[in-house]
DNA sequence: TACCAATGATTAATCGTTTAATCATTGGTG
DNA sequence: CACCAATGATTAAACGATTAATCATTGGTA
């Protein structure tokens, strides 16, 4: 239980056994030529005095710090915990530490954050880019987690497929009029999700997209989204690109006295922490962050450890499917709902985008 | 914009100017005796070739890595983003990097996480301990962010005062019967919050505590908390120790057709990201994480830079007040509500605990 | 003139590890 | 017997910065 940095080093072990430090190093790393018995003795004494190699010393010599940087668009993002946890786990399993850097939303700070990491000699960087930004060459290996449709993306969830799964689920429950709720139209992730949803509209289905930032720019921040009126218009399915927006929709509907899921269904994305504890429980899509992180880290480590000069990191599997988590906010459409006057079949289902 | 580690070092600058590396080091750090003009020249060339000191080299020599560790009870905690962001900002302002370590909830992993950090030679650690655990001496300076009532706490929000503010606010609105909703009774933070609430009950006020984990152990996870029945019992104020529980309460009440805030008021804690976007907006308490992080980092850095051997880090100001954010889930009690039969004044307000 | 202090710079050791180059010993082979 | 290869270990040079100790020069003072 003694965490204390024992101050022990190679030469100490060497002195104890009357051998050279180089031999100790070789023995422990299994690299040079050391007799089996000596290796055993060295291992034993190392364990005995609680030797822990100095990563700093090693870093200076090898030029590798064993540390990866993690840059997030905005740490305040509620998805951040999932990502950070998964990355930290994958990284430390691979023997790397994780240095965080917050870019606080702004592009300038993202640049700043990256250079802070590089100055600290990280061996590589995992970056979840700010929407709309493109990662330029930064002189060290970079794995990008964004969306499959982003150029330069290393690995990410299959947001498009997730969108498809949502609409398929709802269409199967009889829904025909969908309000797709996004936040910002510049986000690759959000566009993929919405694109996927649109691509699976059922026969005679109709979808409309509402971008919250655009809405708020017009009507002010934090107000109502006017969803009750949409229900009156015949919309029965409200599909948000994130659980945050889904929650906003759900509470707004509840407050307006519209029963969920009886009168309207609501879905989100990401399975954020609260989604399972609210009433009714939110139907949402979960990404397999553990797998994504694993792929990202593996790809990054491969590039690092093969000294590949180029900074483009590619993974064998660039996208990981999302899984639908069905809870209580989605249900078969009530016989009465949705069959309002204007049930025109004028909107053809959109074609597949890929 | 060139992030590339230029490979430049002290000797390179030295060679360029025909001086010794030591002089360059002295000039840049302002430590030895170097003539003003030479300092200028050295600074100029350093800037010109884009010299960035190798933190690794420096670390090896000085024994200080310039990196702090951040240990969180469970990264998945929705409060984590706020904490991490604030700590990262404060640390990087002080010239330190932040290495994260997730303890994934378990005590064993918390120990593990700490030793991983120590092995990486962090100069100090900021730890938000798992509830119920006590941080033992770990051989490097540690700042603990927990609650003022925790022994060994360095700095934290004044949860007790936050609790007081909640109840004062609600009492001012006429509420008398409070249901205090906690999650786990072993948490210092939660106990402080609840203690503060109890300490400010108005004349004739009544408070009851409900621990969710206990409730779920009995009735199963994820079910209803039976809040509608509590409303029938005359409770009008539902005060959760976290926005997560408040959200759970709010949606459960809404779903049961109980109007918030007309028929019941709900409050949370922490001002989590969704609290401002839900309908109605959640009244909650915000902690000033920026200040808390600043104090924690300053205290930690002071210990580190004075080489104080002892690992007990004390701050000048151990607790930071929380601020009440009033939104729409709290309102003056309806004339009809709460005046049910059993309005006995039998419960005396609890005394101050400190 | 001789001595001293202040100034400005250099030397060299050090932090702990890795690793190429070297050396010594041994047994085997032509 | 001489030569070679294999084996097991050592030496010494890095990596890049910091810093105590040292040295050289200058100007001032007794």
Short description:
The structure is a homodimer. By secondary structure, chain A is of the alpha/beta class.
Can you characterise this structure?
The structure is a homodimer of 354-residue chains. The first copy, chain A, has helices spanning 10-17, 21-29, 36-48, 55-62, 80-93, 107-119, 159-172, 188-198, 212-219, 227-232, 243-255, 289-305; strands at residues 67-72, 97-102, 124-127, 142-144, 156-157, 177-182, 206-211, 237-240, 265-267, 284-286, 319-320, 323-325. Chain A has 3 domains: 10-53, 434 Repressor (Amino-terminal Domain); 67-140 and 289-320, Rossmann fold (3-Layer(aba) Sandwich); 159-287, 3-Layer(aba) Sandwich (Rossmann fold), CATH 3.40.50. In chain A, helix 5 crosses helix 12 (289-305). In chain A, the strands form 4 sheets. In chain A, strands 2-1-3-4 form a 4-stranded parallel beta sheet, sandwiched between helices. In chain A, strands 7-6-8-9 form a 4-stranded parallel beta sheet. A two-stranded parallel sheet of chain A has the order 5-11. The relative contact order of chain A is 0.12. By secondary structure, chain A is α/β, with parallel strands linked by helices. Chain A contains 12 helices and 12 strands. Strand 2 of chain A pairs antiparallel with strand 2 (97-102) of chain B. The first copy, chain A, binds a DNA duplex (30 and 30 nucleotides) through helix 2 and helix 4.
